[in-house]
Amino acid sequence: MTNTTHETETAFTVPEEVRSAVEAMADDARGASRVLATAHRARKDRALQRIAEAIDAQRQTILRSNAQDVENGREKGLAENLIDRLSLDDARIDGLISALHNLASQTDPIGQVIDGQTLPNGLRVQQIRVPLGVVGAIYEARPNVTVDIAGLAIKSGNAAMLRGGSAAARTNTTLVGIIRDAMYGAGFPVDSVQSVDEFGREGANALMQARGRVDVLIPRGGHNLIQSVVRNASVPVIETGEGNVHIYLDETAEAKRATPLVVNSKIHRPSACNSAETLLIREGAPAAREVLAGLLKENVRLHVDERAAELAGGYSDRVVAAEPGDWEAESLALEMSVRVVDSHEEALEHIQRYSTGHTEAVITNDLRVADEFVARVDSAAVMVNASTRFTDGGELGLGAEVGISTQKLHARGPMGMAQLTSTQWVVRGEGQIRG
User: Fold this and answer.
1) How far apart are CA 307 and CA 326, in angstroms?
2) Share of the chain above pLDDT 90, in %
């Protein structure tokens, strides 16, 4: 149950001409970011609406570009989960358009007062939201991310520099061109959104090393890509993690609730990082057999321990013995690891050992079990009687997301507009001096 991609190996020898070109792009992005940072909300919202309208108008062009990328991906043996992430259709384009309109309707975070007070000496102190500046993103086979990050960056007053990977090269080139044209039409610099894809892997390496020109770098993709960026970038990185997502089925859970929750968490979009990968079943849980039957009905291949095999009806081509590595990795496919545990404590210990800090869920009718689970699970998102697929910026009211952070500094969980801001202290006085 492993996931690999051809976009993960990184050689950090960057030709000088590539380094110079990417640094010049970053300087242009810095200039664009200053325009965006001071733009009124109405201008930014109109830009987002123009992008949405342009994507709709050029839908067929986008789909043709995407079909070529998908065909090339299949010819090169791209993993099926990556093919799914790469693929666009009318429904997914509708989703991109809807997300842009949603962003346009949301409150502008820039200038929001986070905290404030008047000190005894008369100084008026405020902490306000300001843009980060130039936001870089490195991702793979996900053309929807191109639109999501561009939209979030624009609304939050940031310029975006993107590396979308070779698998989605044609689709991303088309989308970035549409976005840049729409930004120009809205009166913003075209360099508000740029792509370094033309420089390939060397462009990504140059982006990672553009410290002082790029303010933050956000990687999205498989384990190898994310860790390569985390280990090698000199630009500050917000780590978005892979999702080794767990569901704990308590003995009080009812099958009529548990079955659709577990099945939805696994099959709704198996290639997504919030898709459930491991099911932990409390010994004696009456819902267990029906839940496993529901997974098998949806063609999920179960990797089971001995007790889970018995609950699933014995070993077969779709019920196989779990191997040690199955508990550690994302499958991002119709595969799920299943283990029976003797206690809540054993379930929590398993999650603590194997969790990547993304999302964990409990299905229970016992409030004490739910509260203990929430208190003791150290992940970015914890679900109680809800599908793990809700760990998503759009689903949680953020409009869209730039990624799901599994680290604890600056941002954690789905990252929307507010997470693409920093703060600034503004102090207003009347000539006060420090004694």
Assistant:
1) 16
2) 86
